[in-house]
Design brief:
The protein is α+β, with helices and mostly antiparallel strands. Helices cover about 20% and strands about 35% of the residues. It is built from three helices and twelve strands, in the order αβββββββββαβαββ. The protein is elongated, with a radius of gyration of 20 Å. The relative contact order is 0.20.
Length: about 170
């Protein structure tokens, strides 16, 4: 009888580990924020819960989705991989959204009614795009002056967005 109880405990522990691993890989994760690019919404050192099923099924240990069923919407806080690092930014614009540029008083990018500051280099690189390319998004940090984002490294493919952050 004692042997049976011990085996039951071992089985429960094993199943718990397997279930926890599956949840972390495919369903939900907790990400610790390192940096100020999303302040004041998400602060350096805080943790956010990520819904990994928001847009599709994440490829285990990968940086893309195996399959998709939804796309990020403007205003959502998203998680994606860039240069082998997990990045958190806000989806500022989605596929085919019009982009307007100005060099009147500094360089700016206007998306809907929001003006984002650009450096001269970002302005020169981005102004060729009159809309967000198809199946891509524009991801920008809430702390515009501190954030390194799509304005610097370009648009993000929708299939690279690994989840939606559940903030506040």
């Amino acid at each position: 009888m004692e042997h049976h109880k011990r085996n039951s405990y071992i089985l429960c522990i094993f199943l718990g580990i397997v279930l926890g691993t599956l949840v972390k890989l495919f369903i939900m994760d907790i990400v610790h924020i390192n940096g100020t690019s999303m302040e004041p919404t998400v602060h350096n050192g805080h943790a956010v819960i990520v819904n990994k099923l928001a847009y599709g099924i994440v490829k285990p240990f990968g940086s893309t989705l195996l399959c998709t069923w939804n796309s990020p919407k403007t205003g959502e806080i998203i998680i994606y991989m860039h240069e082998n690092r997990l990045v958190i930014k806000r989806c500022a614009a989605t596929s085919l959204c019009p982009l307007e540029y100005s060099s009147d008083k500094g360089y700016t990018l206007r998306v809907n009614t929001v003006d984002y500051p650009l450096t001269e280099e970002q302005f020169v690189t981005m102004q060729a795009f009159k809309t967000v390319p198809e199946n891509m998004i524009l991801a920008i940090g809430d702390n515009y002056t501190e954030s390194i984002d799509s304005r610097t490294y370009g648009f993000i493919p929708v299939h690279n967005v690994l989840g939606k952050a559940l903030c506040n």
